[in-house]
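Figure 6 in text form: structure in, sequence out.
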């Protein structure tokens, strides 16, 4: 869920490259000299709070390939960092409006998102379908906020169950305020060191979370970082697990007795249920594509949105592409362009 597909060199020679800021959100708009009349709104992925930003905004890695294919590309850095899906939807819509005043004659507009930007794409298509011809979610966290938060909570309480009072980590575990204050590298190192003390438990945890063992420490530290940031944004823990029955952790009876139980903060729970809601009620085509062996968007996460779409009776709008590439957001520029082209009605 990191901002993987969203950094890199700026386009080399577009006819126009504009940049600025809209209500606290840096933006850029690149237009090729052979513009095809179509606009791609590109939504980047998760950016940890506090990461320095370049000024002017740096273009995503795939920007040049999209320009070479004739598309104009508009990108926002968002008005806030962290799990900023709700802010990003607003920022991207504000930028779309601005971009159409700059470009004047836009034939079609597409939404393209990577990782967390996939959720931004899906939410934008659900909330503003009248402005888009379709969208593309690549390596996307296409999950309602409450579903995502539940997954993150499961990861943290499971780690604390298998590795209590791990050296280098807070005594109260990964859900504690002390854990949220740890630098990302210190958090990762503490988790990795703990996993090494009990390979059998680590393997059980990796299997349950659907993450390769060598990627487990990174996945757990990322989940901790996002859940703590989301709790800060929402004003409290957005989900709880009182009464929840877990399975897949080996001795499930012992796990359910021993795992930490926490309650959601009602206002925070309402935040994820409303501000980060996804319904599946698509009215525009959505192309979805994942990578092989993605440690961030694992197989059970990939099934969530198609199930919502099926319940909303909108399956005709969903266009899944076969997995391509390895890891998280491991797409080539050509694959990104092909995915955008696949969103066009046949």
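Output sequence:
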């Amino acid at each position: 869920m990191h901002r993987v597909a969203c950094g890199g060199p700026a386009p080399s020679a577009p006819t126009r490259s504009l940049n600025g800021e809209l209500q606290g959100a840096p933006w850029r708009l690149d237009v090729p000299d052979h513009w095809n009349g179509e606009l791609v709104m590109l939504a980047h992925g998760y950016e940890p709070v506090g990461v320095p930003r370049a000024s002017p905004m740096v273009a995503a890695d795939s920007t040049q390939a999209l320009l070479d294919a004739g598309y104009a590309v508009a990108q926002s850095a968002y008005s806030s960092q962290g799990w900023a899906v709700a802010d990003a939807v607003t920022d991207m819509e504000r930028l779309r409006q601005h971009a159409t005043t700059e470009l004047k004659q836009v034939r079609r507009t597409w939404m393209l998102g990577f990782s967390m930007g996939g959720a931004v794409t899906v939410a934008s298509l659900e909330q503003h379908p009248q402005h888009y011809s379709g969208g593309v979610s690549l390596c996307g966290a296409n999950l309602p906020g409450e579903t995502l938060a539940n997954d993150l909570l499961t990861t943290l309480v499971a780690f604390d169950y298998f590795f209590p009072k791990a050296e280098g980590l807070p005594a109260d575990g990964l859900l504690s305020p002390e854990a949220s204050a740890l630098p990302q590298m210190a958090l990762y190192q503490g988790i990795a060191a703990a996993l090494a003390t009990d390979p059998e438990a680590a393997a059980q945890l990796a299997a349950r979370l659907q993450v390769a063992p060598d990627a487990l420490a990174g996945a757990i530290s990322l989940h901790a970082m996002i859940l703590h940031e989301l709790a800060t944004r929402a004003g409290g823990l957005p989900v709880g697990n009182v009464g929840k029955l877990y399975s897949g952790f080996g001795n499930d009876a012992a796990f359910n007795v021993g795992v930490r139980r926490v309650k959601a903060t009602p206002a925070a729970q309402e935040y994820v249920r409303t501000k980060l809601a996804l319904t599946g009620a698509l009215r525009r085509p959505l192309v979805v594509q994942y990578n092989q062996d993605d440690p961030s968007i694992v197989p059970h996460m990939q099934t969530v949105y198609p199930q919502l779409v099926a319940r909303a009776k909108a399956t005709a709008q969903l266009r899944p592409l076969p997995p391509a590439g390895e890891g998280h957001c491991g797409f080539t520029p050509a694959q990104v362009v092909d995915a955008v082209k696949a969103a066009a009605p046949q």
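Caption detail: The two ends are 31 Å apart (CA to CA).
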